[in-house]
Specification:
Helix content: 40-55%
Strand content: 5-15%
Structural class: alpha/beta
Distance between the termini: 28 Å
Strand order of the largest sheet: 4-3-8-7-5-6
Length: 251
């Protein structure tokens, strides 16, 4: 239930979600760790997907990117938690000097075409990414392994690793890196957020993100792709209704 005391986190489905501003979240990640940005289409699979569940539980910071999750929680719990989107987080992250410096980040992209668009957009923002600091993730199945990426990060020793692949896979890849690297950078699993800025996906204005309308822009741009995805995400309501703050585990 809501209370007069300001909280810095709220537990939903067993995961502690950060409650605070984007700059505070970025500050917390400055010392390293794994940040996850769970979206509703992936969250609805928490009970059945043990690997995804493990990644969320072993993250160092989870932010409330899912507008649907926030609205459902506030409705069911009569609460007033705030949303912090992955897009807002990324905008704040890219303002930091230690991120803008060449070689400070290794970027993990979903495919070669996305990598080209995203790197061109970053360059236009004054963020030069050396060729060796961009990595296209392989197709990730049930088992996560990318020894080439591990070697690349350990050789370059970046302060930040920014993962821009799809939800469900990126969190597992982030945990794989956290558990297997010989040091702990800040691992930011921000998913499609950069695609909304670079043109790799439909552009989402700040006002639309603020008013929980990013899903609508995506659906209108590619209805056959996103309408079924968001329709299926409605199952998250039942999951939160049943488990509230408890961890859902399929029997």
């Amino acid at each position: 239930m809501a209370s007069g005391k300001k909280r810095d986190k709220v537990r939903i489905l067993g995961v502690d979600f950060f409650q605070g501003a984007a700059h505070q979240a970025v500050d917390r990640m400055s010392q390293g760790g794994l940040l996850v940005v769970p979206a509703a289409p992936a969250l609805k699979e928490m009970a059945a997907n043990a690997a995804y569940r493990e990644a969320l539980l072993n993250s160092d910071l989870a932010i409330t990117d899912s507008a649907f999750m926030v609205m459902v929680w506030n409705f069911l719990q009569k609460d007033s938690i705030q949303r912090l989107s992955g897009l807002e987080y990324l905008r704040e992250l890219l303002r930091r000097d230690d991120v803008r410096c060449p070689g400070a980040c290794v970027w993990i992209m979903a495919n070669a075409a996305s990598s080209e668009r995203n790197l061109a957009w970053l360059a236009a923002q004054g963020i030069q990414v050396p060729t060796e600091c961009a990595h296209v993730a392989p197709m990730l199945g049930k088992d996560i392994a990318d020894p080439e990426l591990l070697e690349q990060i350990e050789r370059l020793q970046p302060r930040h690793v920014i993962v821009t692949i799809g939800g469900g896979a990126q969190e597992r890849l982030g945990l794989y890196l956290k558990q297997n690297l010989n040091y702990l950078p800040a691992i930011h699993c921000i998913g499609a957020a950069i695609a909304f800025l670079s043109g790799d996906q439909v552009f989402i204005p700040v006002w639309a993100d603020k008013f929980y309308l990013g899903w609508l822009f995506r659906t209108m741009s590619q209805p056959r792709r996103f309408l079924p995805r968001y329709w299926n995400a409605r199952k998250l309501y039942s999951l939160i209704h049943r488990y509230r703050d408890q961890l859902p585990v399929e029997a």
